[in-house]
Amino acid sequence: MPDQHRLIVSPVITEKSSAAYQARKEYAFRVDTAATKPQIRAAIEALFKVTVTDVRTLVVRARRRTGGLSGRTGRRSAWKKAIVTLKEGDAIAVFEG
């Protein structure tokens, strides 16, 4: 199992995720592809000192990518996203600022 800092790769900050954490206290994170829901729950609780009530995960599929004048094609790799719901009253400062 990777340690907690490597398990949570980065927060996902988009318009959709911003609306979700303002309305329903749901926070989105990019996580390690081998991470399980209990590992994600433990890492979020330890890193941010909050209480997690629910964890949902999904794998964002790989996409084809073209670019440049030469028309080179490539692929973005697949990655795993975790949507975490917190207990009422808890917040994560990364998303609030």
Which secondary structure elements does this structure contain, and how are they paired or packed?
Elements: H1 4-7, E1 8-11, H2 15-24, E2 26-31, H3 37-48, E3 52-60, E4 63-67, E5 72-76, E6 79-86, H4 93-96
Antiparallel strand pairs: 1-2, 2-6, 3-6, 4-5
Can you walk through the features of this model?
- By secondary structure, this protein is of the alpha+beta class.
- It has four helices and six strands; from the N terminus they run αβαβαββββα.
- The protein has a single domain, classed as RRM (RNA recognition motif) domain (Alpha-Beta Plaits, 2-Layer Sandwich).
- The strands form two sheets. Strands 1-2-6-3 form a four-stranded antiparallel beta sheet. It has a two-stranded antiparallel ribbon with strand order 4-5.
- Strand 4 and strand 5 form a beta hairpin.
- The radius of gyration is 15 Å and the shape is globular.
Question: How does the helix and strand content classify structurally?
Answer: alpha+beta
The overall pLDDT, averaged over residues, is 89
Oligomer status: single chain
Write the H/E string, N to C.
Answer: HEHEHEEEEH
Number of domains: 1
Keywords:
two-stranded antiparallel sheet; alpha+beta; 6 strands; globular; four-stranded antiparallel sheet
Question: Outline of this structure?
Answer:
The chain has helices at residues 4-7, 15-24, 37-48, 93-96, and strands at residues 8-11, 26-31, 52-60, 63-67, 72-76, 79-86. The protein is an alpha+beta fold. The strands form 2 sheets. It has a 4-stranded antiparallel beta sheet. A two-stranded antiparallel sheet has the order 4-5.
